[in-house]
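Q: Structure tokens for this one, please.
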Amino acid sequence: MIHHRFLLVSVLLSCSTRLLVAMETCPATGMPGMPGFPGMPGKDGRSGEKGEKGEPGAPWNNVLGPQKGEKGEPGRTGYPGKRGQGGERGERGPPGTPGLPGEPGDHGIVGIHQKAAFSVARGTNEYPDRSSIIRFTTVITNINDDFNPFTGRFRCRVPGTYYFVFHASLEDRLCVLMKVDNKLLTPFCDHRRNRRQVTSGSLAVSLSRDQEVWLETKDYRGMRGKPAGYSIFSGFLLHSQ
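A: Here is the predicted structure, written as tokens:
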């Protein structure tokens, strides 16, 4: 029984082999089929492992990598650009450091900075000399001795604006010149001749330190003084500079 089955299998295998050989050796007689549709793109594969570090490149001029060139010459100066718009005003900075002390000033004299005044009288009946400074015999007020009764001159020690005035009691004609440092400020003349009269004149003058003011006679010099009427010359500081 087993032997018969073996023979049957052998026959079947032999027939199958012949059939396959016959199919390969026989020419195809049918039409080729239509090509199939393209398949869907496949997904990207996973990233591969990181490769090993490569070898250094070949040397270039005996140096690995490019060489640095020499520094070039500076280019020409460009044209100045237009002035930009001004920025906003910045905040006030902190105070600077104190400066060095200044040089010492001139020595002052205590008590004369805001005070200057004098008043003197001519108490003699003699005429003053012609074309000369009128001198006064009696000192009424002389703060800080600014007026010199021996020379008849007032010397300014406090710069500022002064007011000068003279008052003369006379019986003769009179011309008085008020001068500053030998420069004529103004003349005061009275050509009337009476038994007894009074004349006066005044002027505001701006003076600098050490300038001098005085009264001087001209042609008529009737500035005399009697006990009944002195001739007086006064001056005082209105305000300092």
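A few notes: The longest strand covers residues 160-170. Residues 2-25 form the longest helix (24 residues).
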